[in-house]
Design a protein that fits this description.
- The protein is α/β, with parallel strands linked by helices.
- It has two domains: about 5-45, no CATH class; about 55-159, Jelly Rolls, CATH 2.60.120.
- Helix content is about 15%, strand content about 40%.
- It has three helices and 14 strands.
- It has helices spanning about 5-10, 15, 40-50; strands at about 20-25, 35-40, 55, 60-65, 70, 80, 90-95, 100-105, 110-115, 115-120, 125, 135-140, 145-150, 155-159.
Amino acid sequence: MSDTVLTVYETNPATSMEDDDLIYFGRYPYTLIDDYAINFSDFSASIIASQFAWSGLALASKNADINNGYIIQNAAQTTIILPQTAPIGSIVSIRGLGAGGWILTAYAGQTIKASIVTTSSGGSIISANRYDTVDVICIVADTTWVISNPGMTTGFTYT
């Protein structure tokens, strides 16, 4: 770390950022006025939040939109259908709340992978508990989704 970066690092809330991952921004010539460092997790969280929308959902079924999260509020089971068209990196997130739980369903030709488990083409993941959560990311455009965060669950059922 250069002396200038170290100086900037120490003049931004120094002790609280000491063990954090930082992103350094600066200009040449280096001065304390133009140089600063920010916490990476704060930066990445704000980027994700600005590109991701959450919706409360009390419907029986919903065709999911890419880069959206759904808080399931229905008393009956709710089916979330993955987007038929999704570029690599698209995310769908589900947070359970409603008593009936949820089903995450893929279109024919799509699969959802979880470690060593893969759903059948057009298969689904079914929550075991009303508060189960899951995040899935598209890893092959339009066809393959993978669970990136199994969140809280007492055990999904895969079909």
